[in-house]
Amino acid sequence: MLLPTTTYRTAAFVEAARRLGVELTVASERPSTFEGAQPAALLTLDLAAPERAAEQAAAFARRHPVAGVVGVDDDTAVVAAAIAGRLGLTGNPVAAALAARDKHLQRLELVRHGVPVPRFELHTLGEDVTEFAARLRYPCVLKPLRLSASRGVIRADDPAGFRAALQRLGRILEQPDVAGCGDWASRVLVEDFIPGPEVALEGLVVAGQLQMLALFDKPDPLDGPFFEETIYTTPSRLPDRAQAALGACARDAVAALGLREGPVHAELRWNERGPWLIELAARSVGGRCSAALRFEAGETSLEELIIRHALGMPLPSLEREHQASGVMMIPVPGAGVLREVRGLATARAVPLIEDVVITAHPGQTLLPWPEGWRYPGFIFARGETPEAVEAALRTAQRRLGFVIE
Ligand code: ADP
Fold first, then answer.
1. What's the gap in Å between 143 CA and the centre of ligand 1?
2. Among the listed ranges 8-12, 62-66, 80-84, which one has the minimum average pLDDT value?
3. Residue 141 CB less than 6 A away from ligand 1
């Protein structure tokens, strides 16, 4: 399991492995002090260099046989593909994982295969954009090539707005965790803004076939100028025809990118012109959101499905449980240092609310979008209908009070 030190996903994947009785090796980019004591359980890999990481994994596998490999985010999905190729394990071709990670490469591949995507152009920070800004079609969206969670994604409505957005994105790409990560950090993708409701599709690719696990509506309009997410609810309330077209669009995108095995998470929009592929990632949903999904009458987690598939274990039914389910990524209430979260007990007491998880810790700096990319927490609800679930999530959120300095 490739678990970068910064991921939110550790607990869910480790718990899933434990439930399945699988022997787990956790590989991270930083050495753990316990590695010497538990040489089969902990491993340091150069996660920034996939081919080198694959060599290191192969050396490890000579001492401790490896039966499967799972990456949990965009970068480790590429490393997992390299390791799978090196060790002959279930996985994606490296080229497919690379195309899924890079928003420009992805657009090129999707266009080449006729998948509907917004019109796009690639630009370099620092170039003279006067003429370009004047001829652009507005509104447009500016975005970095490889960040995630909508970090740095900005809508612009006119040439002045475009120049301001470009400067703002330029400053984000100068942040220490981004600058120096590669050539991509000096590039900006500029796209047509696609109006219409947005959905997130969670899927598992098995032998090149996309199995749809869930389609989530995003009931709060994502019109920008920034694209912080809030509520996801499933099943989708869109008409069957729209759902089928969105599923087919994601299936075409999987084929276009050449993805063969493992989880995918896609964002799509729907309007009078049909479905649009906004982004497809070769990983499962981020943050804590996967807790909104359960399979086999609620017995099986998304992480268990992913691990089973990676190991070639028999897959149970991929049908989601019967109830409607939803998660709210709690909006960042403002910029500052988090001191306290009030109202947790009353928020948890709202009918249909299953859990309220605060992932930010006191003393942590909260940063709104587009510079920010981390939600302070997550709220989960289940109920008869997606409408009831959505209402419960909103009520619970209103009961929370963030004290920020
Ligand atoms: P990330 O990988 O950081 O999430 P995305 O490319 O998925 O970046 O963009 C984040 C969000 O921004 C999308 O989910 C969508 O709401 C919005 N967005 C991005 N591109 C467009 C576009 N061309 N038209 C409309 N909305 C967009």
1. 8
2. 8-12
3. yes
